[in-house]
Amino acid sequence: MELEKFSYDNRMPRNFAMATVFWGIVGMLVGVIAAFQLAFPALNLDLAATTFGRLRPVHTNAVIFAFVGNGMFTAIYYSLPRLLKTKMYSDLLSKIHFWGWQLIIVAAAVTLMAGFTVSKEYAELEWPIDIAITIIWVIFGINMFGTILTRRERHMYVAIWFFIGSWAAIAMLHIVNSIEIPVTLFKSYPVYAGVQDALVQWWYGHNAVAFFLTTPYLGLMYYFVPKAANRPIYSYRLSIVHFWSLIFIYIWAGPHHLLYTALPQWAQSLGTAFSIMLILPSWGGMLNGLFTLRGAWDKVREEPILKFFVVGLTCYGMSTFEGPMMSLKSVNAISHYSDWTIAHVHIGALGWNGFMTFGMLYWLFPRIYKTQLFSKKLASTHFWIGTLGIILYAVPMYWAAFRSYFMFRAFTPEGQLQYQFIDVVQSTVPFYVMRAVGGTVYLLGVILMLYNLIKTVQQGSFVESEEAEAAPLPKFKATGKQFWHSVIERKPIWFLVASLLVVAIGGMIEMIPTFMIKSNIPTIATVKPYTPLELQGRDIYVREGCYTCHSQMIRPFRYEVMRYGEYSKAGEFIYDHPFQWGSKRTGPDLARIGGKYPDSWHFNHMLNPRSMSPGSIMPNYPWLFKRDLDISNTNSKIHAMRMLGVPYEQGYEAKANDDLQKQADKIAASLKNDKIEISSKKEIIAMIAYLQRMGKDIKASETTSTNN
Amino acid sequence: MSAMILMLIGSLIIAAGFLAAFLWSVKDGQYDDDFSPAHRMLFDDTKNNNNTNQSSN
């Protein structure tokens, strides 16, 4: 057969690789700043844009979607054409993909710092950006599937399967979780409320970890580890089993984020069961990667790239063992809302994603610049600094988590709680400092890499594209018995549909019953919609990212019920668009904060938390006292809420702002009683209204219909 | 309770489907060649073969 000439493009992988390094440093720097803010609240600078509640989403979005995202695209744009012996489908689509993605990242950072957020973790971005992400993702998909369809290599190497599975799952997750009703250009409400919103969100949140941080990087691993070691993967068969079992099981595990919450019991158990099952495919994959180096461990001693891969894979194994353990209810009782979760995700993020990325970059740059790595020794130093950084980061967090758990649940012989929340906070602060130092050390390693790569680029000369030749694919015609075999194995579109189906069925079986069957969410007669002022206050709560440190979900433990009040019921959240359960308790739970303190306490506390609660690490919120509440959108907010099923009476929009003003005046008057003068038009008034409402409805009420 | 039953039925159908697919694929010889793809990916067919795998030494 005639050989066809074509070329592999190196510009796109290079662009994505450079973006990976750049956004990696930016995202980690923001993370380090946020980490220090937890120890030294003055670093919040008393500015809205630089407060922890806004910087934390910037950090998570930057490292996930900018650093790992660009890393994933680097791997795909480099490996896909080479594995399929063709060029990328369209240079134009590649360009749009690259620049579109970078623009989205910039828009994300700017809007998050401006306070435009949906508050659903790792899906905080508001609806215009959600739409932009969808468009770019589809463009990326067309480019990838176009490449696959025009391939010259019939067999699709396992890495490609991982890329396809990731693409399909993320497309669906992103769309399902981002269904929201726009109120203004940068404000929207999710269509789901309370328990259902929480279920959808953590189904997304969990699978974002699965299909954005894990499966594409497994694809990366299956390509770059064999390449760097110059030996085939340990077991190709295992890699196929790994893929199918992983994507099938992963999608069911989401509810493990909601153990001991108001989520129906059966959904919690289902999540736990599948989480335990995940150990097998995950460890199969890890061992497959590590065993690839069997008989070549001497190379690992010499080669920093392999060192990065070995520790990266080991961290993958550790966090995929730890994750299922944390899905056990008794373990989750300790780990949930604590710094354990933070340690867990950073073993995955710094160890797995970070080290796999670094290994890939050290391998890639010398190749596309046709030179040797500037300094192997420096890369090795980076490896050791990075490993040290991970340890310095994780150990204090584990320690802090257990320490605070034992403090939270300590009772005096009289049966009273032994420690105030603030005691726990203060005893955790030293660990926050150590963690921030660990993060800084890790970041220093990345800066070493930047220097090393710049030097490598300078000494080399860029190879824009590499000429290649291969025979075209003969037209394949399947017959009889072979038909289904070929349909499944050889047709990427079919493969895509199959992955989508697997993923969708898993999600639907978990979600549809909760949506459809009323008995799962007992309604509580006294739970009423928020007043317009409370609704506005709630949106400020969302805007400031209060959920990043405060949960609104009291679990049914004696030590929580005694500290925070009656445990939370599913029926209390039916008007919560979005839910605000949170995932971390850096500060106390707020589900029943309403009525606990006078208005003046909240006023002083928001102005300077340390005046009311000495030793607090909460930021000041001075701008809430200066800004007037924007009430021009009250009508559209009420309207949107009614569309979502919140029972505001017809025509209430017209009266909403009057009611809002009345309630605001009342709060201002109550503050005046305590000798605090402030205009009833300020944002803080709405904030106080919301805080004072929280968790109150259920008091003096009885559950009208219960359990399933 | 109806939610549990719905879920159970759904899960069993999927599980059965995948078991069937797995048995079929083994019987069909789907995984017979698990050698050449793993080796083929190590070789890039670039013309100016600056063999990409040497420098790890």
Textual characterization of the structure:
The complex is a heterodimer of chains A (708) and B (57). Chain A is mainly alpha-helical and 708 residues long. Helix content of chain A is 64%, strand content 3%. Chain A contains 25 helices and 4 strands. Chain A has helices spanning 11-39, 52-84, 91-113, 127-149, 158-177, 194-229, 236-250, 265-277, 279-291, 297-302, 304-326, 329-335, 339-368, 376-408, 421-459, 483-490, 492-516, 532-543, 558-564, 599-607, 609-612, 623-626, 634-643, 652-673, 683-693; strands spanning 4-9, 180-184, 187-190, 465-470. In chain A, the strands form 2 sheets. In chain A, strands 1-4 form a two-stranded antiparallel sheet. Chain A has a two-stranded antiparallel ribbon with strand order 2-3. In chain A, a hairpin with a 2-residue loop joins strand 2 and strand 3. In chain A, helix 6 packs parallel to helix 13 (339-368). Mean pLDDT of chain A is 90; it is low at 702-708. With 57 residues, chain B is mainly α. Chain B is built from 2 helices and no strands. The longest helix of chain B has 27 residues, at 2-28. The chains are: A mainly alpha (708), B mainly alpha (57). At the A-B interface, helix 6, helix 7, strand 4 and helix 17 of A face helix 1 and helix 2 of B.
Topology, element by element:
The complex is a heterodimer of chains A (708) and B (57).
Chain A: E1 4-9, H1 11-39, H2 52-84, H3 91-113, H4 127-149, H5 158-177, E2 180-184, E3 187-190, H6 194-229, H7 236-250, H8 265-277, H9 279-291, H10 297-302, H11 304-326, H12 329-335, H13 339-368, H14 376-408, H15 421-459, E4 465-470, H16 483-490, H17 492-516, H18 532-543, H19 558-564, H20 599-607, H21 609-612, H22 623-626, H23 634-643, H24 652-673, H25 683-693
Antiparallel strand pairs in A: 1-4, 2-3
Chain B: H1 2-28, H2 36-40
Compose a concise summary of this entry.
The complex is a heterodimer of chains A (708) and B (57). Chain A has 708 residues and is mostly helical.
